[in-house]
Amino acid sequence: MAQHDDSGRAADQVVHSIAERIRLGDLPDGQPLPPERDLMEEYGISRTVVREAVRTLSSRGLIEALPRHRPVVRKPGFDAAIDAVGSIVTHLLSEPGGVRNLFDTRIMVEAALARQAAQLATRDDIAALKEALEANAAAVEDSEEFYRTDNAFHGVLYQIPQNPVLPAIHRAYTTWLAPQWSQMPRLPERNRTNLGAHKAIYDAILMRDPDAAEARLRDHLSKAWAQVRETFGDV
Amino acid sequence: MAQHDDSGRAADQVVHSIAERIRLGDLPDGQPLPPERDLMEEYGISRTVVREAVRTLSSRGLIEALPRHRPVVRKPGFDAAIDAVGSIVTHLLSEPGGVRNLFDTRIMVEAALARQAAQLATRDDIAALKEALEANAAAVEDSEEFYRTDNAFHGVLYQIPQNPVLPAIHRAYTTWLAPQWSQMPRLPERNRTNLGAHKAIYDAILMRDPDAAEARLRDHLSKAWAQVRETFGDV
DNA sequence: TTTCCACGTTTAGTCATACCAAAACTGACC
DNA sequence: GGTCAGTTTTGGTATGACTAAACGTGGAAA
């Protein structure tokens, strides 16, 4: 029996093989992976290698490996992709200008979304925006809840184009920028300011005015950024 | 001595610790990781765990682990992040509508970039665009070269905002969408069409007309998409 | 002196075995 | 039929061993 692989990376072949089986639906979503002992027999490898393969698959986001449970196949969605980069992004954000750069892309993306919303939003989209806005308004006194509804309002913008990539990006932004936000002082006063900004954006979309929608949104996020700067200085 | 960790995931702690040391510059970029034997002693763990940790760090993109070499610390750039998701994205693109969804975000992003370019491009930016356009024009008869210069032209758009995240995104798009493109028929005729589109975009930016720039760009990429559809049908 | 190669020394890759503790399963008991 | 205790799996880790490739060193050759 070939005890030693020729290429020097037997684990990678197993990773590839299992990844392929997942992609082809051979290992369906939600199903637990075969036990490590079975896999070692199946591939003719030691458990060491199996474990390394499982590890890799896990950090690639193709399986979900909770501590003492059987790894579960997780057919990756766009947000699994977001998870996979989380570690790197953390590093990047800790570098000077990192947060700024990320936030700038957020401004750019949401500006484009606001513009698109003003042009293409359906009646249902507008209704969803209105609902989110009202939920946001109802929470001005509860900063915790305001934070959630604030996010939800922005989230509606990401849903309007009906592209599943976008909500994943929204989740990425909120996840990665959360550390900054969670340390910021939350005051009903600020909530009211932000609510006003949300309403302005909503109005511009309602008026089908892309330029205004973009401008209001940029203004809103730029002010949010100014608050971050106030709290953290340069980041 | 505590032979078994209480949490059930000693490796993750090691991963976190080493990641932190990399982030803080304790393990500088380009330096090889300490030998596995040293790490096991340092952390008081077995080699099994060390290896799993190294594996994880590697697939997270924080170190580069060539087959039989010492893993090398690789302070991740934005494009290391792109690598990390490659595996998942492959899966996503193989599903119906996957390529379409990704390409739509590209249209959205580049539309925003074109708009921004029309508003904010400096003289140098315009010069860079012009240069890229001329290189593109010089390559109409050489489809291979035209492909490269085409990419480069779009790449300039991603460079204008001076945000390092954006070029990484451009690389991501070209990498992930390359499989489709590389199988498409390349004809000087099509090259000329695309060149004309590029020129139209350039002109709009030169005229400082954001609406026109966005419109020309959307038109350009939509036609490119139509060609993809022609070649592959629904993807 | 510089270059280059043979040699011994690390070190990553893998295997085999063993143990523990937490899950998962099974069956008896209420 | 539902609950709980006991048994069997299964993941997490440790230990030791062996192979082959990479590395480092010093001496021989140019």
TrEMBL record, chains A, B:
Which GO MF term does the entry hold, naming one?
Answer: DNA binding
Where the record annotates domain HTH gntR-type, the positions are 8-76
Alphabetical list of Pfam families matching this protein = FCD (PF07729), GntR (PF00392)
Q: From which organism does this entry originate?
A: Antarctobacter heliothermus
Q: What is this protein called?
A: DNA-binding transcriptional regulator, FadR family
* Keywords for the protein's UniProt record, in alphabetical order: DNA-binding, Transcription, Transcription regulation
Upper lineage: Bacteria, Pseudomonadati, Pseudomonadota, Alphaproteobacteria, Rhodobacterales
Q: Which SUPFAM superfamilies match?
A: GntR ligand-binding domain-like, Winged helix' DNA-binding domain
* Xref: SMART domains: FCD (SM00895), HTH_GNTR (SM00345)
